[in-house]
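User: Structure please.
Assistant: Input sequence and predicted structure:
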Amino acid sequence: MKLVALIDGGGTKTRTRFLNQADQTVISEVVTGPSNLGLGADVCWEQIMQAITLACVPMPVKCLAGLAGSEYAKQRSAFLFNPPFETLLVSDRDSGLFGAHCGMPGGCLTVGTGVAFSWLDESQQLLRRGGFGFMLADQGGGAWIGLRFLQELVRLADRGLIDESHQSLIDRLAIGQSVNQWMDFANAAQPRQFASLAKTIVEAEGQVSLSADIISEGLMALIYLIQDFPKHLPIALVGGLSAVYSPRIQSLGYHVVEPQGNALDGLAYIDQHRQQLTIDYWESYA
């Protein structure tokens, strides 16, 4: 049996689906660690090979990967140089888009560890915003929420303004009790570690004004990102923070819908319709 591997890689986790190439039936699906290309091509391949091991399947004959960080040209080239099987790479925002709307006009806002947006207009033109990575962008995403909280926490502590609500949240985050400990955490953290704080910070929105302020700031950044998107088209939010932002974006007049499928479904769609799509993709070479 010949297998095709579909890879959905982000800053926190990687989902891999193995299909029977002959009839496209799903053989297995597993989740491993992060495979954002910004972490390096070797890291991404480690997660893919780990997925093959965990699924106990033979080596695939082909891989379709929708990875965050596909904008990193150097790592993209390294990822595609002499892989163990034929490989096609696309941006995770595009795999999410075609999964969400099955090739119909609409937008897909990815809000997970990072943030990216793409949409397909009524003339089948593909447009994109964001996706510039944690150091320069990703405002509103999970890693950004964790970073912003620590930035504001240090600022408050410096003026002796940590109150009981802040302290309760600090205890739940398990990041230490002092500025020096917060600095140590931040200096050693990658986006995944910052993003690990986001769930607790978001859950405290009703009790901690600092959490509410950060979420409001994140929402404004997302609205700026999608401001050119036609409001009459459907927009789907995907990623771990989609439930947080979806009702807020809908309240601003956007036609928010549930995605019809996920990024793995989008990769399958791209594989079947690639010749008809105007989409950036990169193929492996030796």
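The longest helix spans residues 142-158.
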